[in-house]
Amino acid sequence: MKKYIYSVAGALLIFVLASCENQLDQVPLSQGTTDNFYQTPNDFIQARNATYSYAFHGASTYGYANRVLNLSETRSDNLYATTTASRDWEGINGFFSSISSNSMVTEAYSTNYSAIYKANQLIEKITEKGDQIFTVPADKASMLAEARFLRAFCYFDLIRWFGKVPLIDKTMTAQEVAKIGRAPIADIYKLIISDLELAIPDLSPSYDAANYGRVSKYGAKALLGLVYMTRSSPTYGIDGAMLGVNEWDKAYQQLNDIKASGLFVFGTDYATIFKTEGIANKENVLTIPYTQSISTSVGGNFMVEVGYEPYFASVGIGSAQGSLEGRPVSTEFLAKFDAADKRKTDGIATSYTVASGTYKGSYTFPVFKKYIDPTRYGTGGREDWGVDFMVIRYTDVLMLMAECTLHGGGGTQADVDAIMNKVRTRAGITANASNTTLDQLFAERRKEFFSEGTRWFDLIRSGNAVTTMNAWRATEDKANRIQTVTNNSLLYPIPLQELLAVPGLYEQNPGYD
């Protein structure tokens, strides 16, 4: 069983390093407390682990993986996720204007800022005390690099959801934070890119099993490549993370460095990619690890977000594992697959049977099953799955490179067609890609990365998010439950609690109550 390198921080992050839940209440620990804590290398390791834990795994058992399945996957045309019982995802897929108090929207804001607070504090303490504490300069440099990466990771996550947000690059009192408005996107990008550029040289190219879960040089390069691609995307006329700049060549360079490293492998079997743990999985470029049945750590539960209780029962897993009200895969999406496509058979359950018990019967309710592996279900119930979540995998790197190529960022049309045909061959369908277009590439990405939380961001990069979603809505939404999608729909609202904390400090994103 793999080692979860920041599991020890689970108990410490609340007691020792916690900031308040509300972003505007980021009161740092007293000077005496922080000075007393940051005395040994192990203290710094615990602080680093706590920062990882908040940035990746969130405040409890709801982390980044849960977030992208709820705010990206559920927002997209992959799921028809309207509800009849006011579930937590109410209004996400329906594009309601009244979701500023939605718990999933609020979590994305508050948890990222809690992680940023920890990263800021760690960066400051390394700068202040690092030379005294670390006998090996490389240890100090790598820890500083990891803290910078995690801060960049969280700010990039924030601006993709909310657009302009407060830029806080040092620890502050609540009174100081209460005076900081939303910063221009360009200023936030300066910090993100600077953090990643400073981090990459001091991050290790790879780690052994004991350190699995720490970000590598190539994980940071993958994120930087995606940053450049997002900056280069059409703006839609809104204050989002998209700037319409032409940096596809910069993105291509970062992604090509990953390919040239030789450390990663295009998996030959689609299903195996999601069932291979740790360093043995050479598709892993940037991964959030989870482990199960370990008392000092928290397993994952992200697959529950798009799961469905009858399906869990059909594979022999007990009750209360998924939602009583599932989020069905959209009919329009299911129709996109060739009959022989392994990605559909390996990743989507279209029919299943429960032999006995509460859910006894046969079902034709289509749900995602890609990440549901009963062999990695732990002893702690629905929040104890030892299934890693791949934020960026090697196939994604190759297909992002192809996207850059089609924007003139590097490479050739032959390279694009070659990766398309590799992907299609692995899926068991005809490798007939020729003169691939951007539309065809995005269509293939949709079938390759469903239930991995990428679809919403892909739609935005395509430049066709609004027209695609409205066309899908016209086909899929027979019950008229989904609102018309507009350019303003491409951002989420600033959480109401933040608007009320200091009235007048922030303006709400257009289109929201």
In short:
With 513 residues, this protein is mainly alpha-helical. It has helices at 9-15, 31-37, 41-57, 64-73, 103-133, 137-162, 174-177, 185-199, 217-231, 248-261, 270-273, 309-314, 331-334, 342-347, 394-406, 413-426, 438-449, 455-462, 465-476, 496-501, and strands at residues 284-288, 348-349, 352-354, 361-363, 367-368, 389-393. The chain has 20 helices and 6 strands.
H and E string: HHHHHHHHHHHEHHHEEEEEHHHHHH
Biggest sheet descriptor: 2 strands, antiparallel
Proportion of residues in β-strands: under 5%
Shape: globular
Question: How far apart, in Å, are the first and last alpha carbons?
Answer: 48 Å
Rounded Rg: 22 Å
Classify the helix fraction into a percent range: 40-55%
Say how many strands there are.
Answer: 6
Count of helix runs: 20
Class by SSE composition: mainly alpha
Name a few traits of the molecule.
513 residues, mainly alpha, two-stranded antiparallel ribbon, globular
Report on this model:
The structure is a single chain. This protein has 513 residues and is mainly α. Helices cover 45% and strands 4% of the residues. A two-stranded antiparallel sheet has the order 1-6. A two-stranded antiparallel sheet has the order 2-5. Strands 3-4 form a two-stranded antiparallel sheet. A hairpin with a 6-residue loop joins strand 3 and strand 4. Helix 1 crosses helix 3 (41-57) and helix 3 (41-57) packs parallel to helix 6. The termini are far apart. The model is unreliable at 1-32 (pLDDT under 50).
Give the helix/strand layout.
Layout: H1 9-15, H2 31-37, H3 41-57, H4 64-73, H5 103-133, H6 137-162, H7 174-177, H8 185-199, H9 217-231, H10 248-261, H11 270-273, E1 284-288, H12 309-314, H13 331-334, H14 342-347, E2 348-349, E3 352-354, E4 361-363, E5 367-368, E6 389-393, H15 394-406, H16 413-426, H17 438-449, H18 455-462, H19 465-476, H20 496-501
Antiparallel strand pairs: 1-6, 2-5, 3-4
Helix pairs in contact: 1-3, 3-5, 3-6, 4-5, 5-6, 6-8, 8-9, 9-10, 10-15, 15-16, 15-17, 17-18
